[in-house]
Design goal:
The structure is a homodimer of 634-residue chains. The first copy, chain A, has 634 residues and is of the alpha+beta class. Helices cover 31% and strands 19% of the residues of chain A.
Chain lengths: 634, 634
């Protein structure tokens, strides 16, 4: 490829701007979410979460590390990767400026950018945890020190700042930091790679913004170096940092979920920019296998608390599902890249599933507390979880205002601020709508014609989506609408009438005229979903889904029977009434204290009564509760 | 109580010598295992494991820490608790001397005892990781430093050395160390307790050996101090070190399994010595609830890798079951204490279950490699587990010669060397046989009459056990035999004929004469066992047991179908032929790569064929294999 220093037509920025690919992402100025489910969350994100995060980072000294932790200072605070949280917050703020078109939407960003710039060493190196007097030398602990990981987030913050115009000064900081990385670890420099992938994806984005080939080459070099067990042996295996097998020959994602997913994002970006179809196909195949064998119903990834890792194939316990919030964000990043590169609408299905069932679950309504991990089964009422304190340790636990390792907050914040970019793309034929929300789109087709449309829907409460063409320069173009994989029985309504449409990408091509409407009706009947029998942990259970939303049984302060003893009747499908979705269920009450294994078949009979379910993303918002997504059947 | 400096009638020592209780344990000189399943393992333990462990501890410098790590030495090696492994090895060696009656059976013990004694500070303090120049000060990290834990193991080694006469010199070392602990942390000393319980149980045993009331009081003081959240907050909760709730008010074992179990052992010992029936009842109730809700079919405890902890009630996944070997040993220690104190034979059932299914599983046949954790489901063939190296890191993994944290080896070694003590006890009426093995018993009844008997059996291959009275001084006494909880249909054969006997403790009381035989026939038909329906992880599965032995399906180098797809027919019970126990099974072959959740019921039909199972304790001995204990049903 030939990198150019900026893609044309950027309006309001966007996180991923590939030089090639089937689909072209639209900028935050080209698509706006105007109402509904995600608009509410974007408002809370901009109005509460960004300030909440800044206040915690200030209070904990993570921001101050850039200003007060001068040479010899013993005062540096936070974990070795706390710089990255500040960078992710800057990135989120930049997208918020892009989203709103209002620099005042992120009042703290200038101060942060200035502090970051001031902390950079003359040689370009920038990390508050290494290299100063009293600290470990630079790059002395690549496996665990997170230095290049932090640099990666700096680069991404700078890219967002540049593309949105919200923090343009950071671009020069990022260039100098990236140059330092390239000088240090380039072909003529030291061998090295970071224990936590992130620099790869960031260097490609910086290359895209700056047109600097060297950054892309360095990303590819880091990628090539991984998978040869050159990092120090990890006690949980080299797979922990994806250093067990080269990306090109791996068959599935493994090890630490976020590391594996970030690395895969970088690999897709490198493949796209270098036209490396073999690499692209390898990552796509690995992700497909991961979706088929290592992914929760919610789209959540990672079942192991111990190392925040993917389990073996089909090891997906609902109890203590890790399903880390950051892995959800990272999986959306990867699915999005694969969607852009391949045009395969299945990846938009994945994005939708994770958005409604991991991202929406992880944030509280006020935008000020979060799940770090997202279990699918809570047996002990949430309020009795071990903490008296506001700030939780590493992983697990209830929604909390902050965590010692607080990556989930700014990660969700940057995703939500930039969410509109995931709704609609352009291809050679026209526009493709991937996600449904009240929105306005105003962009240009590949041939330069300007088109605008509005989307109106009560999705996901209701399955009707109306797209109204509000401007078109004339001539034929295509409007593609995603019929999600669960939407068997969908109906398309156009001027020609109603017709049933299959699952997959539905293309309407014509000479659209302004004012014309296309309406998609997705069936929202609640449905039972059964697991692959190889997923031992949920054998003999069903889940209930409605549209893209996974439901759960929740017992708030004991308002139902003991969910450990729940049995659901599956002879008739779930129903829906003013109380929501209901199943017929009973609560068996086994004996109390005895050896729990024996010859007898457990008795299971008795009358059933309706039990109302709630969306999984709504759980743990009404007081101490127990919860389960997978419901044992009678 | 009034402690006496030695219980009468000690012959060959034994690990637990309570002053009170329903049952009196016999010494290693009073009961010998002479053949069969456990005799073979005792031979390997004495002939290979003790030397293997000593050689590793030498090579890794853990022994050398006592001799070369003088003041200012930067050479101390191993983790902060490596002293404890040396102590446990000394304890195991001492029991081996007691078992064999041969001081030459543990040739390294004198050198170890001398090195340990020489490392003691003049004030009695003894720990190679703290207090010297260049090290952290003594008792500066009670929560994680394992100092008092190490001291506890020193005390237990000294107790074993004294009771067996194998290392009598250590008793004075232990006294001085215990005095230092009492001086430091006594009623007038510093408040303190150890993050890892162990000192409590050890102080009681030392009190029993020495008659020193102060040690018992100190143990009780440590126990009283626990449960008030005075240790530093642990990021996984105070339950990690059982410091969340006082022992007296807890309802179940929780947190780190080994810590919780060791603490409970100490609590029983304190309760017994102080006549504290409330405390005894509290621990018994907690253990009963733990057995009913937090214990694997194998008797294994602890389902969480992250913190080596008990999970919530009924969270017992077979996949990645932690079931730490040391938790098995510790659970036997606790069950044994409760058996002695209460006489309730259910606790002997527990001991048997853990012996055949955790302890026997954890050791390889040559006594030179071990499982640290004991999964119940291996999906990826064992040989592809991540390690190229001989010494594994912390937890998990295949049987390995050594671990960085190698507590399991000496823990099993000390149990096996002292195993004969767990077979038979004396009560006011006579003798009680708890475990079946070829054995010889020669002891005195409570009233001083001498009795001797031999036990002959091919247990657990065969269920017939013949007890022959070889000596009796005349007059009536009772011989009690345990009919295990699984042994419905057992038959007793005496001179009077055959009669069916119920599950529980069977008492034969009469004027026995020398040469008389009592024969118990336990039914060894293989049987299906079903889990409590609240254990979600194994819903829709059965296990197969035969006698005390849990079986499993194992696929060695793919010699069966894919165990992920196994389905077992349960319409007829398992059968037995020359190939062993068999079930009828088929292997469904679901699709490859697709989203694993959907509306359709998974298809399940096809012919079944016999599938031979193997004892769980035999798995992973024939090459790379996959394995599962819980078998999905058709």
């Amino acid at each position: 490829m030939t990198l150019t220093s900026q893609n044309p037509g950027l309006v309001g920025g966007r996180p991923v701007v590939p030089s090639r690919g089937v689909l072209r992402p639209l900028g935050l100025g080209e698509v706006r979410i105007t109402g509904g489910f995600w608009a509410a969350r974007q408002r809370v994100n901009g109005g509460a979460t960004l300030g909440h995060a800044l206040s915690w980072m200030d209070r904990l000294g993570w921001v101050g590390n850039f200003t007060t932790g001068g040479p010899g200072s013993p005062d540096r605070r936070g974990r070795e990767f706390s710089d990255s949280e500040v960078y992710k917050l800057v990135e989120a703020m930049a997208w918020e400026v892009g989203r709103t078109g209002d620099r005042a939407a992120a009042p703290g960003i200038d101060g942060l950018a200035a502090a970051i710039a001031a902390a950079q060493s003359p040689d370009g190196y920038l990390n508050t945890a290494f290299g100063r007097q009293g600290q470990r030398p630079c790059y002395s602990d690549l496996a665990s020190g997170h230095e290049l990981y932090c640099t990666g987030h700096l680069l991404q913050a700078a890219v967002a700042g540049a593309r949105t115009g919200a923090a343009g000064t950071l671009l020069e900081v990022a260039r100098r930091a990236a140059d330092h990385v390239c000088d240090t670890f380039g072909p003529d420099g030291a061998w090295g790679l970071c224990g936590h992938p992130e620099i790869e994806v960031a260097l490609v984005e910086l290359a895209r913004v700056t047109g600097e080939q060297r950054y892309l080459d360095q990303a590819a070099l880091f990628l090539d170096r991984r998978g040869h067990r050159t990092l120090p042996r990890h006690h949980l295996g080299w797979s922990y940092y994806s250093d067990d097998v080269p990306v090109l020959t791996a068959t599935v994602l493994r090890g630490h979920s976020v590391r594996s997913l970030y690395l895969s994002c970088g690999a897709v970006d490198i493949a796209v920019e270098n036209g490396d179809d073999e690499l692209l196909a390898a990552v796509a195949e690995q992700f497909d296998r991961t979706l088929a064998r290592r992914t929760y119903l919610t789209g959540g990834m990672g079942s192991r608390h111990q190392d925040e890792a993917f389990g073996d194939d089909f090891v997906l316990p609902a109890d203590r599902a890790y399903s880390e919030t950051c892995a959800g964000v990272a999986a959306i990043m990867l699915a999005w890249r694969l969607l852009l590169a391949t045009g395969d609408g299945r990846y938009a299905d994945v994005v939708e599933r994770i958005l409604y069932n991991v991202v929406a679950t992880a944030i509280d309504d006020d935008g000020r507390s979060f799940f770090y991990a997202n279990t699918l089964h809570q047996r002990v009422p949430t309020a009795t979880l071990p903490d008296d304190e506001e700030q939780l340790g590493f992983g697990g636990g209830p929604r909390a205002p902050w965590f010692e390792v607080s990556c989930c907050l700014p990660n969700i914040a940057r995703l939500l601020a930039s969410l509109s970019t995931y709704l609609v793309t352009a291809d050679d034929e026209g526009l493709r709508v991937h996600q449904y929300a009240d929105a306005e789109v105003d962009t240009r087709l590949a041939d330069g014609r300007r088109v605008a449309l509005t989307m109106r829907t009560d999705y996901p409460d209701d399955g009707a989506v109306t797209v109204r063409i509000t401007r078109t320069d004339g001539g034929p173009w295509s409007l593609a609408l995603r019929v999600p994989e669960w939407a068997t029985g969908a109906v398309l309504v156009t001027a020609e009438g109603r017709r049933a449409v299959p699952v997959g990408d539905l293309v309407v091509r014509r000479d659209f005229i302004a004012g014309e409407e296309v309406r998609l009706e997705l069936p929202m009947r609640p449905r039972f979903t059964r697991p692959d029998p190889r997923i031992d942990a949920v054998r003999g259970c069903v889940a209930v889904e409605r549209g893209p939303v996974v439901l759960c049984a929740e017992s708030v302060e004991g308002d139902t029977g003991d969910l450990d003893s729940l049995r659901v009747e599956v002879t008739a499908p779930p129903t829906e009434d003013e109380g929501g979705v209901a199943v017929r269920a009973r609560f068996d009450a086994p004996d109390g204290v005895r050896w729990p294994y024996g010859a007898a078949e457990p008795p299971s009979d008795g009358d059933t009564a309706p039990l109302h379910l709630v969306p999984y993303h709504r759980w743990a918002r009404r007081g101490p509760s127990t919860m389960r997504v997978w419901l044992p059947t009678t």
